[in-house]
TrEMBL record:
InterPro entries: Bact_Lucif_Oxidored, Luciferase-like_dom, Luciferase-like_sf. It comes from the Bacteria. Residues 1-176 form the Luciferase-like domain. This is LLM class flavin-dependent oxidoreductase.
Length: 291
């Protein structure tokens, strides 16, 4: 099994954005030392986050590490010009070869923030045009747009991931041969069925005669304190808390989820609020993680 980390960059009480970013760098280095497969940063636009768009933070993480894959999970496609996304991640993929992931998502933010991000453009139309915009990003990265060349020409491409909570992207994933990450912690439709991955894998193999690269993403909090576990359960309202409990029960839970969804990689949204709590969750993997 492979395990990765997803980081929202939440600023905790008595901290600030810069301290949180330094903590993220430290957590990424720890993840690499422990053999984690990936460290992903999200794009969200709430006010309590150390970054909104992770594009500027990713090269820091890549520069402070050597082997672990670094990426976005994910770029909100409707809020960014495809050419900018393609340029940033193609260049990053060539500065740090075979280490960069580009996750693409349909998410949105508050209306007034969306309007600012698209600078007067029609962000609602952009969201509806998700698949065409992803195809444009992919074609720009792969030098398939004849009148636009993004440096370096014919360079390496980032690993492309479609993020989702349902099977709505299945046909696109099969056609464009992208990777897929299924979120288990979004509250949009409740817990997604394991059949989403099963059916997608079968259809992908039938079309291409090769296995689809797929993982699941879930949220987790580990503590030795029953009081802290209950506190996190009470305050976690905006997402589904997939696991909250003692460290010794975490690996068996993950193995159960891997078997249920038939995946060999799980990305973990670490809900620890202090650096000690984040480290406690990651230290569970000292003898279990394989890169």
């Amino acid at each position: 099994m492979k395990y990765g980390i997803l980081d929202f960059g939440t600023i905790q009480k008595d901290s600030n954005a810069i301290s949180t970013i330094h903590e993220t760098i430290e957590m990424t280095q720890m993840a690499e030392e422990l053999g984690f497969s990936r460290y992903w940063l999200s794009e969200h636009h709430e006010d309590n986050l150390a970054w909104k768009n992770p594009d500027l933070i990713l090269p820091l993480l890549a520069g402070y590490t050597e082997n672990i894959r670094i990426g976005s999970a994910g770029v909100l496609v409707g809020l960014h010009a495809p050419i900018n996304t393609a340029y940033h991640y193609k260049l990053l993929a060539n500065l740090y070869p075979s280490r960069i992931d580009l996750g693409l998502a349909k998410g949105k933010t508050e209306v007034h923030k969306s309007l600012e991000l698209v600078d007067g453009g029609d962000w609602k139309k952009n969201m509806e045009d998700f698949f065409n915009r992803v195809k444009k990003i992919k074609s720009l990265i792969n030098d398939e747009v004849t009148d636009i060349i993004l440096p370096p020409k014919q360079g390496e491409s980032p690993e492309l991931w479609i993020l989702g909570t349902s099977n709505s992207s299945q046909d696109f994933i099969i056609q464009e041969q992208t990777n897929f990450s299924l979120s288990l912690f979004h509250l949009i439709n409740g817990m997604p069925s394991p059949n989403i991955i099963k059916e997608l894998k079968e259809a992908y193999f039938k079309k291409h005669q090769k296995e689809l690269n797929v993982n699941i993403t879930l949220s987790a909090f580990c503590s030795k304190s029953d009081k802290r576990i209950e506190e996190i359960r009470e305050k976690t309202k905006n997402i589904m808390l997939n696991f909250s409990g003692k460290p010794e029960y975490f690996i068996p839970f993950l193995e159960q989820q891997a078997k249920l969804y038939n995946v060999d990689e799980i990305i973990i949204l670490n809900l620890g609020e202090t650096i000690e709590e984040k480290q406690l969750l990651m230290e569970v993997f000292k003898t279990t993680v394989s890169a």
